[in-house]
Each structure stands twice: as structure tokens, then as C-alpha cells.
């Protein structure tokens, strides 16, 4: 039996770690290999919890996979075929700073996660975690493929691609959410729809929507359904569809980060999602459905819901609750399907991933940019599918974001405050140089423990 | 001696006091043109202005003893057949519409610095200019398809892009912006402009001094600029120096022109259109062209730009009426009616006709061969030119610094959307161009502003649907 070693870094994360393990041990195809799953996390308690759950899930599926855990990634990486990453340090506390501190200086972000001034700092933190991981891979498993989930996805992939020789692909369930919403709008199962998205991560656009069986263009039906749909408090998704002629989703929280006019329509998504202590009622609990996520009312607080998952896991491990379906169902993520496509040379087209724009898969964006497009995956690797040009308005918006991304990667490489400031002042939500500079200095101070030292 | 070959130069918009007087003086003063049998045909739809300029042209011809023929006609289709060069500078009620371009977006909360070349007001300026210039280029296709169009009409990049996308006419867009940049740099360094080789790159009104060298030795002069960057007063707002500190290059005149491309500029430089005295709203009611109480290009004690231009008309009339001599200087710039400009139109014509193979400071041309390496090939860029009998070639300047390339790329998409909005007469594409503009932060207000502008400028805008 051929050996296959998959390293999961950031495995202590409740959602990512356990979801990925379930995908790996549930996969019938991967049973054709002598599989080793190596879990890595620097948080010993979280890693122990995930390892305990991994044993339960493996038992549940009767999987023969070998599962091991270590705090040191350099122990896990030698011999790895695939490295799956999802890493962050003090995600909620720092996200809260990414959002509220730029706001205090007058910059109206919707989410403060992947676009806008807060995201510049998120990017530097993530690069400071991910580039050293990729450098260890260069040394210890140079042939392995990196499958990254760490945000900001485009920027992390650009950093890895620009600064290391590691091959990587960036994954995000965004395009799946878009497909799901389109299926819902058309009243058809997602399996019947052929969707071609293109753009940047969290800013992809449904360029083509077709009936898989007969190839018919479903965009006219989609346009009708968009008019009739109940968008609840999401004013931005239908507005962007009307203005630019293509669907992007979920607009208030994700594409909205790239648009200077989004805040007026989408409002402070960070507050509505209940992310960070500032955003919540002090007595709020995970089961209170009083938040608004992706424009939908009556949702749980995203932050508390995530924290609650850790408690549910602890209850299962303590024998107080049975192993529920929540932890044993396959995720919708593409990491395991892509691994199988490569191992079996299936040459499948997968919905979308973030890869360098080789051969100008998107004709009017730079070749070195990281784009989110459908991919074709086989033994030779992951190749972007050519989708033609983006509509001009969207290409213009993407071009500016690509320059911001390149400046941030270069700012990280050179540890340059000057380049960071350039990236900040050309951002579409930044309208002041003195305030941008003051905000930057404050952020470099309050996040100093987790940022690279900038000069 | 061989009979001199004929050269026909048509000036459209010749009734404009500044453009007409300056270009005619350039033609009459140019010794190199005397190798040709030159006919200058003046065209303007304003017949009174055209008559005034024809009379001034005859006087300038006399003054320079130029052996050239001068004709004039209000109908460009009479003038174009046989033309070798067509020089254009056209606008309808420039000041009244500029005022609307600036103040109406402001009323909807969009803080423009200038409202001329970029930002929401400039979208309407663009549509008006395309509505004048594209029909001129189409007439050229029919009547003088081989002629070179030398355009001064603003917004320069956008007009040139439209001519390149919508017609088969060969065009170059000229602007004295790079000349100001060179002058300012030479003043800051305390050297004469002739000693300096400047390489600009970017888009019109957003060009950056990528290289500044000593002509004789090739030495990089940026270290010298760095030494005087904070002591020399580039502009009273310190914006030019700030741009240098941020992006490492000089751009000029930063408060009014490059400032239009940055949403953060308004906070730093304020409402330039107001400070320049553009439009009646911006002026003291009793203000005249000789009052020096305005701020132009970041310099205090300047005349109102609008009133100064009107004053030029009055000086021409006074001269033609025999009240003042032709050599009477203006109150501020101290130049008189015989004064040639520093514009490149006539030098470029001579470069081509005499195959001089010269490098000219800069012009706006299609980015053939990726002259600016990291901007699209079909964009119109402002770069140095190599000019000879075979035509005009952009000089390769390499890539722009990444931040500036990103800002330019977005602007190029806005330009393409506006040209396409004009071609399709599409409100939907105009709205897209407005929505992706970096200073537009509201969909609702952008739509309402667009509707108001389409109404208040309806007389001169193409009809959009």
C-alpha cells in the first residue's frame, strides 16, 4: 500500500481541525493508501482535545488511518505529501482590534477582515505565521502541496507564492456558498448547476451560470429570481447585481470589504455578527438568535457559536453527550477532493480555488496575481481554468486590490512601514493620510505582540 | 530651388483666446516651418471669436514676418480636406460647466478637489468632451484620414482613449503638465531646465517623475531633490512633498491635478476649484483678472484662472482696436500677445516633417509595447515620446511603483467604462464608472447626483438611456 502523509497545521481549531479530520478519515478513496494524519498545533490543550476527538471519529468510521499529534511542525513535516493549514493567533481579540481601531480613526469598514485598513494588519499577522511554515516546508518536504485556509486567503497565497518555492492552493467555501445561494434562488439542486466564478477571494463573481445537463444559460432566470427574492437586510447583494450585472455573494460581509460605498448600505457587519466583546450584549449566549449574518436575521452570535463548539466537544469527550452528526458529517471543503484528484489523476474540474493567474486565466488581471477561478486537478497539479476577462468595472476594482496585496507582501518581506502606509492610503475606504498614519502607528503598538517588527 | 511642399494645419477651437493666440504665435515664430508652404486654417463655431482670432493671426504673421497663409471658417468640414495636422482644443461654456462639475457632486457629499480630470464631475466633463471630439475625429476619418490629431481638449487621457477606441485616427494628446513638473524641479534644484533629463510615466495629470537626471553626465538627481524636498516650497499645502515622502517620486501640480485621483487629497489640499476662482460661485462678485488673491497650483497671490483668461480676450480686443500695442504684458505672467507657448504641438510637427528623431518631454499615447510595463497595452499613458518621420513612439519607462500602478489601473477601468458609456449611450455603464471611483462612498447619493447632472447639463451631454 502506498504511503500518504497529510499534515494538518492549526488542528487545534474546533471547526477547521475536526472538520478536516472527519473528511480525511471518512474518505473511502483515501483507504487505498497507508494514510498518516499528523496533527499540529502550538496550543497543547487544543491539540489534545482535537486528538481525542480524532480517535472518536476514526473509531466511528472504522478508519485504519494512523493519527499522530505534535506541537512541533518540524517533527511532522518530513515526508509530508500534503500540508493543510488554518492558523491564527488570538483570532477574536485581534479581529476586534482590526475592526474597531480603524473605525476610531474614521475609516468605515464593514468587516475589517480581508479588505480595508484592518485587513492590512490581519495580513501581516498571517504572513508572519504562514511564511515561516512554508519555509519549513521548503526545507523538510519541498515537494508537498500546501492547501491553505488561513485568511486573508489571496494575500497569504501571494505571500507564499512570492517569497517561497512551495506550491500552494488557497481554499475557501465562499464559492460553495455562492453556488448554494444560486441553487436556492433557481429552486434547483446545486448538482444540476455549472457555475463559473472569477475574481479574487471574497470578491468572486458568477460569470457563468449554466444548466449542467444541457448547457443552457441560466442567468436570465437568475436575474428574475434576484428581483423576487427576499434579501432580508442584505441590500448590497441585489444592488451589486443590478449595478454590475453579476452575482457576488455574500456581499455585505465579504465583497463589501472592497467597496468604498458598501458601509452606507451594509452597515457594520462586525457588530451585526456579534464578533468581539464590544459587539455583544454582555449576557448574550450562543443560543440567542438575535444577530444578523450574511444579511439574514435571527442568527446566533458568530463568535459565541464558535466558542460554544469547543464546549460541546468537551462534553462529548467527557461522555456527557454522544458523538453527534455535526462532527461526523463530511465538510463541503475541497481539500480532500483535491488530494484525491491528484492521487488518482482524476483531472476533475473543481468549483474554485485561489491560484496564481498563470496563462492569464483571468485575461485582464496580472499574471502574478492570486485569483479565485475554477481549477482543473490531476496528477500534474492544480491548474486554473481560463475564464476570459472580468467585466471592466470589476477588473479595475480587482487591479487596485492586487496592488494593495503586492505592497503588503513586499512590506512584510522588507519589514517596511513605508510600504504598509502606501498600501493603506491607496485603499478605497481610506480618505485621510494623517489619520491613516496615526491609525497605523496605533495598530503597530496595540498588536505589537503578534505583528512582525516593522521599521 | 525646389518648390516648398505644402503643409496644412487646421486649428479647431481656434477662437479660444489662450489656445488660439498661443498656437498661432507658435506657428508664426517657428523658423523650421519656413521650409514649408504653410496654411493655417482657423476653425471655431463661435464666429465672433473666430473673427477676432483671424485678425490677431494676421497681426502675428506680420510681427514675425512669417510667409504663411491664414484662413478661417466656422465649418470644420470645409477646413479638413487636405489637412496634414489637426490641432484641437474644444469645450462648450467651459467655466459654467466646470462650475457644475465641481459644485453639484459637492452638494451630494462627494469631496472633489478640482472636478476636472478625475472624480465624479470629470465623468460628465468626459462625456461632454467626447460628444465634441469623437465627431471631429469621425470627420477626419472621412476627410483627412492620414492627418495626425494633436489634441489639447481635456480630460486628455479620456479623449485620446475614445479616439483610439472609436475611430481609426492617429492621435497624440498634449498637456503642459510635464513642462510644469520640469520647471518646478529645475527651480527647486536651482538649475536650468535644459540641463535636466526628465522621464515621466503615468496617466495625464497623474504623471510621476520616474527619473530625473543631469543631461550632461547622466547622474541621478533624486538625491539632490531629496535634500531640498522639505525646504523648497513646491506648493503651500505641502502636498507635493507628501507625495514624494509617500511614494518616493515627484508629481506635479499635486494639489490640483494628481490630487483628483486620491480620496485623501481633499482633507489636505481643500477645494482647489474654489481657490482657483473657477466659476462665478468661487469669485468675489467685483473681482477682476488683475486681482491677485487666488491660489493656483499651490501658489498664493495669483489671478483668478477664469477672470485672467477673460482678461486675455479683452487685451486682444484692445490691441485690435488700436488702444494698446501688441507688446503690452499681462499683469501677472508678464507675457504679451506675441508670446509663443512651451507646448509641444509645433515641435512635434517639425520633428515629423523634418524627421528630427527627437525625444520630446511627454505626450499621451496608447501604451504600445507596454511603454509603462505594468499598465494595460490599450491604455492611454503619459510618457516621453520619440518623434520622427515614421511617427510618434512612446519611450519605454519600465514599471510604475506598485501603489501608483494600482491607482492608475483603476482609473484606466473608469476611462474605459466612460468611453463605452458614451459609445453605447449607457447610463448603466456611467453609473458603474461613478461607483468604482475612489471618492464615491455612496450608491444612493451617486445615483441622485448622476440624475441631477444629466438634467442640468442636458444641453451639451449626449443623451443617455
Describe the overall structure:
The complex is a heterodimer of chains A (about 450) and B (about 475). Chain A has about 450 residues and is α/β, with parallel strands linked by helices. Helices cover about 45% and strands about 20% of the residues of chain A. Chain A is built from 16 helices and 13 strands. Chain A has helices at about 15-25, 45-60, 75, 90-105, 115-140, 155-165, 175-185, 220-230, 235-245, 260-265, 270-275, 300-315, 335-345, 390-415, 415-425, 435-445; strands spanning about 1-10, 35-40, 65-70, 80-85, 145-150, 165-170, 195-200, 205-210, 290-295, 295-300, 350-355, 370-380, 380-385. In chain A, the strands form four sheets. A six-stranded parallel beta sheet of chain A has the order 3-2-1-4-5-6, with helices on both faces. A three-stranded antiparallel beta sheet of chain A has the order 11-12-13. In chain A, a hairpin with a 2-residue loop joins strand 7 (about 195-200) and strand 8 (about 205-210). In chain A, helix 5 (about 115-140) crosses helix 6. The radius of gyration of chain A is 21 Å and the shape is globular. The N and C termini of chain A lie far apart (about 50 Å). The model of chain A has no long low-confidence stretch (mean pLDDT about 95). Chain B has about 475 residues and is α/β, with parallel strands linked by helices. Helix content of chain B is about 40%, strand content about 15%. Chain B has 16 helices and 13 strands. Chain B has helices spanning about 15-30, 45-65, 75-80, 95-105, 120-145, 155-165, 175-190, 220-230, 240-245, 265-270, 270-275, 305-320, 345-355, 400-425, 425-435, 445-455, and strands spanning about 5-10, 35-45, 70-75, 85-90, 150, 170-175, 195-205, 205-215, 290-295, 300-305, 360-365, 380-390, 390-395. In chain B, helix 1 packs parallel to helix 2 (about 45-65) and helix 5 (about 120-145) packs across helix 14. The radius of gyration of chain B is 21 Å and the shape is globular. The interface of A and B includes residues 403 and 404 of A.
